[in-house]
């Protein structure tokens, strides 16, 4: 509306000053006031330049033809160039491609035909004027449209990049939360299970056997201190700010004896004994992620045995062959109405996740048939078996679990 009002006002000023010209080869004998009619029509076309460019351009073309025949006003011609520009810039992609081609054809015709007819070099000015009025605004509109589309493409690409970055951030946060949950569960559940079991034993024998109760309380204290130390170590890892300050992992397969010793003490009240059968070749090293995952799987299996296993022997077997580390934990199985201590049921899920992170496998469940023990003899009764196989050459998938 501002452009249309400015064009109309400029045309009225030019007309009032008598600055209208007629360059038509066959000028029409019309009153001078009719020069304002094309000006008014062109003003209406300007009002439609953005909302309906497909309508504005034909109307503006008719107005320009009338203007050239009745007495041209510069304001009318300038508004026509703006309508051509708007038709290319705001029109459909098909019209934006066709209009510049038509303008090129009109400019060529306006240059060649007068020159061929009159043989006068001065007629080349006609082509130059037509090029300025028609072709120049069309090419300008095409260039600006291409710039706009490029900017829009870059904006969409930036939004997609930001979206992907946000999805990656959320995935990293989710993976980190899952890792922290696994570490908290694996490090603390074992100690808390021992505390719960010995608390129950201490309460049951407090009156009849004070010495046994005292021993149970001592075990409770040791498990509490160990669990607190594990928690402090994990919190210290989370607070580490520098990447160069990563501590060496302490949860190693060589430390399984120190894990099974308190477990054996805790399982005494439930009739459980724990034995480790390490058949790995000492010369072959185990990658740190695999060693940590194997340690945590054994730790969780021992915790589950303390909670659920029937009285008997719990055998932990480690084997290493063909670039795979195999962990087998056999414990006596007996259907129970509930565990000795409450749990969240996340232990098996955590073990399966650790194996999957290393592209390994984990199977856990009861085996009611004969099961061969570490010594090659069949184990008596039903057995709950946890069997994990971890490849030694694979890299962790996603965020690797740290200690």
List the helices and strands and how they pair.
Elements: H1 2-16, H2 36-47, H3 53-70, H4 74-90, H5 93-118, H6 124-205, H7 210-239, H8 256-267, E1 272-278, H9 288-308, E2 312-321, E3 324-332, H10 347-357, E4 361-367, E5 371-372, E6 378-379, E7 383-391
Parallel strand pairs: 1-2
Antiparallel strand pairs: 2-3, 3-7, 4-7, 5-6
Helix pairs in contact: 1-2, 1-4, 2-3, 2-4, 3-4, 4-5, 4-6, 5-6, 6-7, 6-8, 6-9, 8-9, 9-10
How would you characterize this protein structure?
The structure is a single chain. By secondary structure, the chain is α+β, with helices and mostly antiparallel strands. It has helices at residues 2-16, 36-47, 53-70, 74-90, 93-118, 124-205, 210-239, 256-267, 288-308, 347-357; strands spanning 272-278, 312-321, 324-332, 361-367, 371-372, 378-379, 383-391. It is built from 10 helices and 7 strands. A hairpin with a 2-residue loop joins strand 2 (312-321) and strand 3 (324-332). The chain is rod-shaped. The protein starts with a helix and ends in a 12-residue tail after the last strand. The model is unreliable at 24-29, 241-249 and 399-403 (pLDDT under 50).
């Amino acid at each position: 509306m501002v452009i249309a009002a400015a064009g109309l006002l400029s045309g009225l000023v030019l007309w009032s000053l008598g600055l209208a010209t007629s360059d038509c080869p066959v000028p029409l004998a019309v009153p001078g006031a009719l020069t304002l009619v094309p000006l008014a029509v062109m003003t209406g076309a300007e009002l439609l330049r953005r909302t309906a460019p497909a309508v504005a351009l034909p109307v503006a073309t008719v107005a320009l033809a009338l203007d050239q025949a009745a007495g041209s006003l510069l304001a009318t011609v300038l508004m026509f160039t703006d309508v051509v520009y708007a038709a290319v810039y705001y029109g459909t992609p098909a019209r934006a491609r066709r209009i510049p081609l038509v303008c090129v054809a009109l400019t060529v015709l306006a240059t060649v035909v007068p020159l061929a007819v009159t043989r006068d070099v001065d007629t080349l000015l006609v082509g130059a004027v037509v090029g300025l009025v028609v072709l120049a605004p069309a090419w300008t509109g095409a260039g600006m449209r291409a710039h706009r589309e490029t900017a829009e493409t870059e904006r969409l690409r930036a939004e997609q990049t930001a979206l992907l970055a946000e999805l990656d951030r959320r995935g990293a946060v989710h993976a980190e939360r899952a890792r922290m949950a696994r570490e908290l569960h694996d490090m603390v559940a074992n100690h808390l299970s021992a505390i719960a079991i010995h608390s129950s034993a201490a309460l049951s024998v407090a009156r009849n056997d004070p010495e046994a109760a005292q021993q149970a309380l001592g075990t409770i204290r040791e498990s509490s201190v160990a669990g607190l130390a594990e928690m402090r170590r994990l919190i210290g890892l989370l607070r580490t700010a520098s990447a160069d300050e990563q501590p060496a992992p302490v949860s190693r397969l060589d430390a399984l004896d120190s894990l099974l010793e308190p477990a054996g003490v805790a399982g005494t009240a439930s009739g459980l004994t724990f034995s480790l059968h390490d058949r790995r070749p000492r010369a072959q090293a185990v990658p740190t992620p695999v060693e940590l995952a194997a340690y945590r799987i054994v730790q969780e299996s021992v915790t589950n045995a303390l909670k659920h296993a029937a009285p008997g022997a719990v055998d932990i077997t480690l084997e290493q062959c063909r670039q795979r580390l195999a962990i087998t934990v056999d414990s006596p199985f007996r259907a129970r109405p509930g565990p000795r201590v409450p749990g969240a049921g996340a232990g098996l899920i955590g073990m399966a996740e650790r194996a999957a992170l290393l592209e390994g496998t984990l199977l856990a469940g009861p085996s009611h048939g004969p099961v061969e023990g570490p010594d090659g003899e069949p184990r008596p009764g039903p057995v709950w078996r946890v069997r994990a196989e971890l490849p030694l050459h694979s890299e962790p998938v996603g965020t690797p679990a740290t200690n």
